[in-house]
TrEMBL record:
Entry keywords, A to Z: FAD, Flavoprotein, Oxidoreductase
Protein name per the record: Acyl-CoA dehydrogenase
Entry similarity comment: Belongs to the acyl-CoA dehydrogenase family.
Location of region: Disordered: 1-23
Residues covered by the Acyl-CoA oxidase/dehydrogenase middle domain: 172-268
Species classification: Bacteria, Bacillati, Actinomycetota, Actinomycetes, Kitasatosporales
Length: 645
């Protein structure tokens, strides 16, 4: 019997790009440090002196952190969550009593009203105990019902749903479908208007919190009709509504306590009053929500780094090899230095971006995306190095270690749990493209019509004139700057000299802008296909941003008299390590294997190398590569399991 064929929504590459472009926030109404960085302008004044939280937000945040720490220490059994692959009902009930469901919700709706800074500190804390609990709280508040309603909801919607979300109702965000990931133009779930309701049909995949949720944010396509502009639209949906079936609870290599599933909608009626924003605004709502929502993930990555550092320090001092602690062997010591320096930088990036979000003076869409990209990649590397430092004990499970009388350190679990962060909320590859699009926005604004094949000669001529004016002013400024003056940034020289690192950032920001311009001039309309080049451009920007944040944080700590000398040491170590990576990335812009890789890929897909696969067996099971998602009534038992239900 052949596997069912998935019904696919056929969308051209150009149509997909147009949908994604329409969902972007088009204007830059506020300054952006990262945007300026990619343009070759090192605007240190936008982040230095380091922005500080107000006294009341600190008081409220520290009070809650103390309560949350006590709860995590006494009430969360991380080993049990890993063993049973579920967060116990009593843990969720306790989090509700603490008010943890409403950390980001305003006090007038019954929430705690924490700042973004302290919300992220709370996630780092709880995520260090159990990443699954961190994911539960983050998905509920960062991308679930509270955040989109805070930005786009009507007053009636806020009054109806936010008090529930702050105290008891868990929410989930449903966008992905079995055949739709980062290309939402092919979204198949429909929402057909009928009077003052919409009727939803479709299937959603990887619904984090979806198995236990009480409220859902659902993205569905409204067909265009009279009085309905249509398009991808966001709705708040009651999870127990008739016609909703959780068909499966997914299991993963990590985050074993996460409640992630497959949800089917069949003739589900949703009041029009539950639509968030106008029809067609769904993707814009999703992307805007993620501008700050993405910060929760790197916050937990920074927390993971702190834990990796603690275990590496304790173990490397205890374990002896050839007559001395393994930490004193250079091969191991370099790994510990990397973990310490990178943890310092990650926390600097998250705290800086969080405080900038709280102040709302800057546009942080690129900063948040860079934090997500950089945090997820570096945390994975730190956990991998910890496993290597621990050797066989790093590969052994905590349960096995404990059973034979040793400290039950879940290093291998941390590695498994962190792996999803390179995929969650935009994979590394998608983040590269998203950030690259924002990074070249200024160029496309003045010269986009020049490389658009659909534009007329008249449009191209007009664009050429405008581009000439822009580049005549911009290009000369990329030749020289403060980074070439030995006296620049002298306020960052206190015993240890960080000023040289900031001069490096300034010089290489200009170099990055020149490389970007050269790439656009060389490839023009084909630039978007040069994903290897664009990824390296973005990675350079991420390193420069992290270096800047690390230096600014070190200077702040020095001025406050809190570990200033040690902070300067860590910032110096991180910047030296980052400079090596930056130099390598620049070299690989023009000297790489991208061309030959493309040829090999064509050969692989064309079957030219199938002979290379001979000599092994494939233990994979039968079935379709992508599950059938044809709309219709569910034939499965509902696996929904609300906490306490």
């Amino acid at each position: 019997m052949s596997a069912p064929t998935t019904q696919r929504t056929n969308v051209s590459e150009r149509e997909a790009r147009q949908v994604a472009e329409a969902a972007r926030e088009q204007n830059w109404r506020k300054p952006s440090f990262a945007k300026e960085l990619f343009l070759g302008r090192f605007r240190l004044d936008l982040i230095h002196p380091h922005p500080l939280p107000d006294a009341e937000s600190v008081r409220r945040g520290e009070t809650f952190l103390a309560e949350l720490r006590a709860f995590c220490e006494t009430e969360i059994d991380a080993a049990r969550i890993e063993r049973e692959a579920r967060i116990p009902d009593e843990v969720v009930a306790g989090l509700k009593r603490l008010g943890a469901l409403g950390m980001k919700i305003d006090t007038k709706y019954g929430g705690l009203g924490l700042s973004q800074l302290y919300y992220n500190k709370a996630l780092a804390l709880v995520g260090s105990v159990s990443p699954a609990v961190g994911a539960l709280l983050s998905a509920h508040q960062s991308i679930g019902v509270p955040q989109p309603l805070k930005i786009f909801g009507t007053q009636e919607q806020k009054d109806a749903f936010l008090p529930r979300c702050a105290t008891d109702a868990i929410s989930a965000f449903l966008l992905t479908e079995p055949d739709v990931g980062s290309d939402p133009a092919r979204l198949a779930t429909s929402a057909v208007p009928e009077g003052d309701e919409y009727v939803l049909d479709g299937v959603k995949l990887w619904t984090t919190n979806g198995v236990v949720a009480d409220l859902l944010v659902v993205m569905a396509r409204v067909p265009k009709s009279e009085g309905h502009p249509g398009g991808i639209t966001a709705f708040v949906v009651e999870a127990d509504a008739e016609g909703i079936t959780v068909e499966h609870r997914n299991a993963f290599m990590g985050l074993r306590g996460i409640e992630n599933g497959v949800t089917r909608f069949h003739q589900v009626r949703v009041p029009a009053a539950n639509r968030i924003g106008p029809e067609g605004a769904g993707l814009k709502i999703a992307l805007t929500t993620l501008n700050t929502g993405r910060l929760s993930l790197p916050a937990m990555c920074a927390g993971a780094g702190k834990w990796c550092l603690k275990i590496a320090r304790q173990w490397a001092a205890e374990r002896e090899q050839w007559g001395r602690p393994v930490a004193l062997h250079e091969a191991v010591g370099s790994k510990i230095s990397f973990i310490a320096a990178t943890t310092f930088a990650l926390e600097a990036v998250v705290d800086l971006a969080s405080q900038m979000a709280d102040e709302d003076r800057n546009d942080i869409r690129i900063e948040a995306a860079l934090a997500k990209l950089y945090g997820s990649e570096m945390a994975w590397l730190m956990a991998d190095e910890l496993v290597q430092i621990r050797g066989g004990r790093g590969y052994e499970t905590a349960e096995s270690l404990g059973a034979r009388g040793e400290r039950a350190v879940p290093a291998e679990q941390m590695l498994r749990d962190l792996r999803i962060n390179r995929i969650f909320e935009g994979s590394t590859e998608i983040m590269h493209l998203l950030i690259a699009r924002e990074a070249v926005d200024a160029h496309l604004s003045v010269a986009g019509d020049l490389i658009d094949p659909d534009k007329s000669l008249q449009d191209k001529a007009k664009a050429g004139a405008g581009a000439g004016v822009f580049y005549a002013k911009w290009l000369p400024k990329l030749v020289a700057g403060p980074g070439q003056l030995p006296s620049s940034y002298a306020e960052f020289k206190h015993g240890i000299d960080l000023s040289g690192h900031l001069r490096f950032v300034e010089r290489h920001a200009r170099k990055l802008a020149r490389a970007t311009f050269y790439g656009m001039s060389r490839w023009q309309g084909r630039m978007e296909t040069k994903q290897g080049f664009l990824g390296r451009i973005v990675d350079v920007g991420a390193e420069l941003f992290a270096m800047s944040a690390a230096c600014v944080r070190a200077e702040r700590l020095r001025r406050e008299g809190e570990h200033g000398r040690e902070a300067y040491q860590l910032a110096d170590a991180f910047c030296r390590q980052a400079r090596v990576r930056v130099d390598e990335l620049f070299a690989r812009l023009w000297h790489n294997t991208d061309g030959v890789d493309r040829k090999v890929v064509k050969g692989v897909l064309g079957g030219a190398y199938e002979w290379l696969e001979e000599g092994v067996l494939d233990p994979s099971g039968d079935g379709a590569w992508i599950a059938d998602a044809t709309p219709g009534a569910s034939e499965r038992v509902n696996a929904r399991r609300p906490y306490g239900g």
